[in-house]
């Protein structure tokens, strides 16, 4: 009650300290109390201190620690924590119900998998995959979809496909993820085939697969099909979705249909940095250097923070248009004003 009262009032450090005092006084902090404090506080340094002093750590405390690391972006630590669970094993409290154990482990895996993709540690991803199979956590759509994502991030398309085809009654979510993975890795033909398969099964795509598939039409030079998707987007009134609008701008820019891409850009209500960078890139690719630099100035007036790719487009524009002085100005600004290494 005291610990809950402290966390409810925002005294997170004091709540952790109270747990610590309980342990010093030989009053055991149970794992559920620890889990509650970590979830409420998110103070990882204090959490580690209390965790190390828990006499018998069960699944709840390990999960809380792993998720705590995940919540503050410490991917490597969360993966190392999971490895300890595998190496040493956890003696589960007999009072825990089996469905809770399975659910908790599935939650742990789902929180870990994105870091495997971000860190490019495909072997750890495979290890988690194998662990999930041996523990009987499949079929589990959320875990399986997360696996597709991680294998895609690591460029292991065959493994991603294997997981996808093993899913019983592949869902809209898993299909969307597989399409995005295909496009991300340049497998545009496979992405288009799967996308068309959704239509054949009367699964009308929503904004997520549509936004993912548009670049595939652009890269495959399928202008007519791209226009058909655009018409479908208009019918569903999805044009206000920034992700979709940016993808359409990119597609028409790739096709060289300038008036359409610029019209889409001009009619966007909420342009983001991707919108500006894409339209700047379009003009850079097609040799309109002065237009690119004017657009960049407008972007700065709107308070947008440019990306590295924005400067790549600008430098390309200046080079193509013979704007040497402007090019050097942007090159120096890249590093000194925005902290972006121009060599990247």
Automatic annotation (TrEMBL):
GO terms for biological process: RNA modification. It comes from the Eukaryota. PANTHER family: PENTATRICOPEPTIDE REPEAT-CONTAINING PROTEIN. The lineage of its organism: Eukaryota, Viridiplantae, Streptophyta, Embryophyta, Tracheophyta. InterPro entries: PPR_At4g14850-like_plant (IPR046960), PPR_rpt (IPR002885), TPR-like_helical_dom_sf (IPR011990). Transmembrane segments: none annotated. Keywords: Repeat. PPR repeats lie at residues 58-92, 171-205, 272-306. This is Pentatricopeptide repeat. One of its GO terms (molecular function) is RNA binding.
């Amino acid at each position: 009650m005291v610990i809950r009262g402290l966390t409810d009032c925002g005294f997170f450090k004091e709540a952790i300290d109270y747990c610590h005092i309980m342990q010093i006084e030989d009053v055991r902090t149970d794992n559920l109390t620890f889990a509650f404090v970590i979830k409420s506080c998110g103070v990882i340094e204090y959490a580690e201190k209390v965790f190390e002093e828990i006499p018998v750590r069960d699944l709840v405390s390990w999960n809380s620690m792993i998720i705590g690391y995940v919540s503050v972006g410490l991917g490597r630590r969360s993966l190392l924590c999971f490895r300890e669970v595998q190496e040493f094993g956890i003696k589960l409290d007999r009072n825990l119900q089996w469905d809770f154990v399975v659910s908790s482990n599935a939650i742990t895996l789902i929180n870990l998998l994105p870091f495997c993709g971000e860190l490019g540690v495909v072997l750890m991803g495979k290890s988690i995959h194998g662990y999930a199979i041996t523990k009987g956590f499949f079929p589990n759509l959320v875990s399986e979809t997360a696996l597709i994502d991680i294998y895609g991030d690591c460029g292991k398309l065959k493994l991603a496909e294997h997981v996808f085809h093993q899913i019983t009654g592949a869902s809209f979510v898993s299909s969307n993820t597989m399409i995005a993975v295909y496009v991300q890795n340049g497998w545009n033909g496979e992405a288009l085939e799967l996308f068309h398969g959704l239509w054949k099964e009367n699964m009308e795509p929503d904004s997520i697969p549509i936004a993912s598939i548009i670049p595939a039409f652009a890269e495959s030079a399928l202008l007519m099909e791209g226009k058909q998707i655009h018409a479908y987007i208009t019918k569903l009134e999805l044009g206000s979705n920034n992700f979709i609008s940016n993808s359409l701008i990119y597609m028409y820019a790739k096709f060289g249909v300038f008036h359409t891409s610029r019209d889409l850009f001009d009619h966007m209500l909420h342009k983001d940095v991707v919108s500006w960078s894409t339209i700047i890139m379009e003009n850079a690719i097609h040799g309109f250097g002065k237009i690119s630099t004017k657009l960049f100035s407008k972007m700065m007036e709107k308070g947008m923070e440019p990306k590295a790719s924005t400067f790549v487009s600008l430098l390309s524009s200046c080079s193509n248009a013979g704007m040497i002085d402007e090019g050097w100005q942007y090159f120096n600004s890249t590093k000194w004003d925005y902290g972006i290494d121009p060599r990247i």
